[in-house]
């Protein structure tokens, strides 16, 4: 995620309360033996204990969506409401014998559920105070460990403009002409039933029906040509690379879906740019998106091949105040500028191919993407990475910037400026210590070792110790675990 408006240094009391005690299913092993058990209603992340679920692994989501934007787009922005009808077909594999299991779904009503082709009982819990939005499914029979099963959920309801723990818009954000869909950290549940945690990556396919004249853009590549009939158009997209749920999107609007172009290495790039962008924003956006092939080529020269089937952008004239690295097709709100585009393209390697196992490790996303922006700026003739590092180190030691624990910023500190800039400074300091050969070799090893998966700060330390032969716990302790300014 690009950082412009999401600067938070201090954790709130509510955030502290969320991290005081882990959920019961995170502290003890699940029951074993041959008896069926209930799947856990949370994924075990201490920042968001009820996000995600336990007991199964999702392999694929097929999302069949029918969306109608607000009937009266002239109402105040905060009152915009659309309508979504969805059918989610989820292929999952139980990791233990299950008598029931949970999916996350926020603010939408379930009509029916089928498991293995048979109707299943279900209940819904919508507890905003506990941030617990659960769909509990009880199949007719037991789900056996290791045996794949298809779960079909029919659901729907009004869409609004949901907010995250900081009060910032996220998820399925209703706009006057459609929706901006940006899920970080746990808002995929605002538009489909999901195991909403980064550790359960899956492939996706989309079938999205909208009023004729609007465009629906999702991850990956078009699966077939859109079809218009009876006043609606259906769009098909497929995303065959594993992706975390927070990186999925199905944004809808008055987009100009531009012809595909390619990087020098052949990566197809598909951009959807809002036809209503003001002229100045459009000019900046066009110039910035035109740099995507060169960015991909440059980052490939440093870190290895681009990790996915496609690249590109979604640029909406409505704004949530930030950009997000939605996999293969980042979302930019209002305008796409060159630095932000470099940041989001860099995320495809750092954050998307390798995602954080725990949300406290988000600096592994944002520090790396910020550092890649520094590298691109230098490569493109701007300030060097060393000069940008020195700018960070010029921040006075008594600034609250240095009080953020980068490797554990708290749930309301995920998007603090220090997570980005001190994270990038950490990587540059590591490069200065190890030298270019070991630094870039470590980055490439990180991406190979954890491709299409998740990892932690401790595992980054392991990678660089393996490459360099040095003991680096003290280095990382100083740079990402201490709330004080490191000595340069």
What does this structure look like?
The protein has 488 residues and is α+β, with helices and mostly antiparallel strands. It folds into 2 domains: 13-354, Immunoglobulin-like; 360-480, Neutral Protease, domain 2, CATH 1.10.390.10. The protein has helices at residues 13-20, 24-27, 279-289, 292-303, 338-347, 363-379, 385-393, 417-434, 436-449, 457-468, 473-480, and strands at 37-38, 56-68, 82-94, 98-104, 109-115, 118-119, 121-127, 132-138, 149-159, 171-175, 178-182, 202-211, 215-218, 221-229, 232-243, 250-253, 255-257, 261-262, 268-274, 311-316, 331-333, 354-356, 453-455. An 8-stranded mixed sheet has the order 6-5-9-3-2-12-15-14, with no helix packed on it. Strands 17, 18, 19, 20 and 21 form a 5-stranded mixed sheet that branches. Strands 1-4-8-7 form a 4-stranded mixed sheet, with no helix packed on it. The two termini are 27 Å apart.
CATH superfamily of the largest domain: tricorn interacting facor f3 domain
Specify the helix fraction band: 25-40%
Count of individual domains: 2
Quick check: average pLDDT?
A: 94
Strand order in the largest sheet:
6-5-9-3-2-12-15-14
Give the percentage of residues in beta strands: 25-35%
CATH architecture of the largest domain: Sandwich
Distance between the termini: 27 Å
Largest sheet, in brief, is: 8 strands, mixed
CATH class category name of the largest domain: Mainly Beta
Low-confidence stretches: 5-21, 26-32
Number of helices: 11
Which topology of the largest domain does CATH recognise? Immunoglobulin-like
**Apparent shape:** globular
Broad structural category: alpha+beta
Tell me the number of strands: 23
What is the rounded Rg?
Answer: 22 Å
């Amino acid at each position: 995620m690009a950082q412009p408006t999401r600067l938070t240094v201090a954790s709130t009391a509510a955030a502290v309360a969320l991290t005081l005690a882990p959920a019961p299913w995170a502290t003890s092993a699940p029951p074993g033996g041959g008896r069926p058990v209930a799947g856990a209603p949370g994924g075990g992340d201490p920042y968001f204990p009820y996000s995600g679920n336990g007991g199964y692994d999702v392999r694929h989501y097929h999302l069949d969506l029918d969306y109608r934007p607000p009937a009266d787009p002239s109402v105040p922005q905060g009152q915009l409401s659309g309508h979504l009808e969805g059918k989610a077909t989820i292929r999952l594999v139980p990791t233990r014998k299950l008598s029931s299991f949970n999916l996350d779904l926020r603010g939408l009503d379930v009509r029916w559920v089928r498991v293995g082709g048979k109707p299943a009982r279900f209940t819904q819990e919508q507890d905003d105070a506990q941030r617990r939005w659960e769909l509990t499914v009880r199949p007719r029979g037991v789900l056996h460990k290791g045996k794949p099963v298809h779960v079909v959920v029919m659901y729907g309801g009004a869409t609004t403009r949901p907010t995250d723990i900081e009060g910032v818009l996220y998820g399925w954000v209703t706009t006057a002409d459609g929706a901006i869909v940006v899920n970080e950290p746990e808002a995929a549940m605002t538009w489909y039933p999901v195991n909403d945690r980064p550790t359960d990556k899956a492939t996706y396919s989309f079938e999205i029906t909208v009023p004729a004249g609007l465009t629906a853009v999702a991850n990956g590549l078009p699966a077939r040509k859109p079809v218009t009939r009876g006043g609606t158009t259906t769009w098909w997209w497929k995303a065959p690379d594993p992706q975390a749920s927070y990186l999925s999107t199905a944004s809808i609007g008055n987009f100009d879906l531009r012809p595909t172009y390619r990087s020098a290495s052949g990566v197809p790039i598909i951009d959807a740019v809002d036809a209503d962008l003001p002229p100045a924003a459009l000019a900046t956006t066009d110039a910035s998106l035109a740099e995507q092939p060169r960015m991909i080529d440059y980052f490939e020269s440093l870190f290895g091949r681009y990790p996915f089937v496609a690249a590109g952008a979604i640029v909406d004239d409505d704004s949530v105040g930030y950009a997000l690295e939605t996999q293969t097709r980042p979302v930019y709100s209002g305008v796409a500028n060159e630095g932000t585009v470099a940041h989001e393209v860099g995320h495809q390697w750092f954050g998307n191919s390798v995602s954080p196992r725990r949300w406290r490790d988000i600096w592994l996303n944002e520090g790396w993407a910020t550092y890649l922006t520094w590298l691109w700026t230098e490569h493109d003739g701007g300030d060097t990475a060393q000069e940008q590092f020195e700018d960070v180190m010029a921040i006075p030691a008594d600034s609250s910037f240095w009080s953020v624990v980068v490797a554990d910023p708290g749930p309301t500190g995920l998007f603090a400026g220090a997570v980005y800039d001190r994270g990038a400074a950490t990587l540059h300091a590591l490069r200065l210590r190890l030298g270019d050969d070991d630094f870039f070799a470590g980055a490439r090893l990180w991406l190979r070792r954890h491709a299409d998966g998740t990892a932690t700060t401790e595992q980054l330390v392991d990678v660089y110790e393996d490459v360099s032969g040095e003991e680096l716990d003290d280095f990382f302790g100083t740079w990402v675990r201490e709330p004080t300014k490191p000595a340069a």
